Amino acid sequence: MRAAQLVARQGPPPTPGPPRSAEYLAESHASNILGLIGFFTVAIIITMILRLYVRKVLLKSVGSDDIVMAVATVCAVGVFAGFCAQVQYGLGRHTEVIDLDMQQGFQRVQFPVSLFTTTGVTLTKISIALLLMRLVTDSRVIIFLWCFIALISSYTLASDLTIVLACIPVNAQWNFALMSTAKCFPISTFTNLGLANSVVTIATDLILALLPMPIVWKLHADIRTKIALMAVLALGLIACAAGAVKVYYQLTFLSQPDRFYNNSFPVWGALEICIAILAGNLPTLKPLFSNFFAEISSAVKYGSRTGGPSRNTKINENASRVNASAVRNVESPPSDDGQIASKEFDAGVIVEEITITQTKA
After folding, report:
1. Which domain covers residue 108, as residue numbers?
2. CA atoms within 13 A on the CB side of 310
3. DSSP assignment, residue 89?
């Protein structure tokens, strides 16, 4: 198929309507778009830094799930950087002010943004799956998670290749001078693949949001802690909701007469990856807040003038308890009902550190 037939997807914007007022032409949603995505991007950067602090400093146990999530965060930052770059090419502006050069520049930036989005979402899911592997000994669950990782990795590779090879030569996707000779996927094929990718993303989000529930319920923790953890992990359902909204805007994006003004479909794609990263990071931060509230409780109880234990002393005591618990976990035989994996748990994954870092009154 010739690239000239892809004008509706990536060619010049629709023919302008009646003349608009100067105020209308000057309007821009760019600040709103960047503010929204920027807020979530800052949030995931903060939670990622805190996660690495907990694992590296407090627990001294950085795992593959942490590394993969860090790479996913880099992808999300790349998405936000792409949105920032698109401002000069008309992001948030009305269609009437978007000329051909701006359209080409916008598409050139959108190319890496699309790759960052699909790759980042998948890396987030892989990280969560690796985290769940550290919580169970049931071989059936572990095999399922490895198959899950293989499936989404293969599908994402195919999706990324679809984006890269949508047109031959590749730069015909943003260089409209090549449209007359380039060969590209039909619009229907590209659209259907995009919708299929969104549906797979929602389905896998749902799996990762619901799968931890029975695992957490079997953990050696009190009911309140289990419910709190399940509530945090259920944030993945919000990512599912964001994906569903994205599908709606994906279906209507090309028919929107003023799509640059709101840029709804790409915006919801960016929000989806940010929400997924938050859902994966927040459960790992419990030890940090347990230490924090334990210190507050200690300060209130003893006071600085009563000779109560210092902050460093309390942290050292908690660290000793973590190490002691790790030894107990290694020495104890694994159960048959999918409880916490003794060799993998290393006193660092979500629950054990929750209880051992709490200071008794």
Report:
1. 3-285
2. 3
3. G
